[in-house]
Structure formats: structure tokens, C-alpha cells
Amino acid sequence: MLTIAPEVEVLARFGRALADPIRCQLLLALREAPAHPADLAERLGISRTRLSNHLACLRDCGLVVAVPVGRRTRYELSDERLGHALDDLRSAVIAVEADRTCPDAEDKGCC
After folding, report:
1. What are the C-alpha distances in Å from 3 to residues 8, 15, 16, 60?
2. Where does the record place the HTH arsR-type domain (predicted)?
3. In whole angstroms, what is the distance from residue 85 CA to residue 82 CA?
């Protein structure tokens, strides 16, 4: 049986979170500042239900936390180092050719 190192599992979770454009937008928005769900939904132009599903995914992955603020809940990155990692990834993406596409994993076994 293949044993996967804990850091590999964490990287895979981070990759799955980044695999969705809405979750990427959420992480980048939260990189800028903590926010309430209603504000995030408006900023991203999506329904609160859809936003809730994506926030739940990011919470389950350990990338964001929900912080009670009175009767409301505010979301923020779970660790400030995630913000730095997102900045580093954004910088690295510049080196990747923008006109390239990655075939679906099911079709080509890639990504």
C-alpha cells in the first residue's frame, strides 16, 4: 500500500481548493481582507448558497476559518502564511504561458 506523506496530502488539498475558479477568487479576496459571506457573494457575483458550498469546502480543507462577530460570521484565511503562498503562486503563474490549457484529468490523465 502506498503511504502518502502528510505534507503531500496537505498540498493535494490546497491544489483541489485552487482547482475551482470561484474558490481561487475567494482565497484571493480573503487574502486582501477578512469578509462576511454577503459581501463575498456580492463581490463575486454568485448566490449565497453557492458561496456557502465553496466556503464549506475551503473550511473543510483547513484553508479558511469562520469567526463569529456578534450575530454574523466573518471568514478569513486560517493562517497568514497562506496569503504569502498565494502571492508566491500568483508570481509563479506569470512564468506559465497564458495560452496553454490543461486537459481534463479524466480525458488525458493530466493535472
Report:
1. 10, 19, 19, 22
2. 3-100
3. 5
Q: What CATH number does the domain containing 85 carry? A: 1.10.10.10
What does the pLDDT read at residue 98?
Answer: 67
Q: Which residues have C-beta within 8 Å of that of residue 19, sequence separation ≥ 6? A: none
- How many other C-beta atoms are found inside a 10 Å radius of the C-beta of residue 104? 10
pLDDT by residue (tens digit) across 27-77? 999 999 999 999 999 999 999 999 999 999 999 989 999 999 999 999 999
The verdict on pTM exceeding 0.90 is no
Domain that holds residue 46: 11-90
CA distance 4 to 13: 13
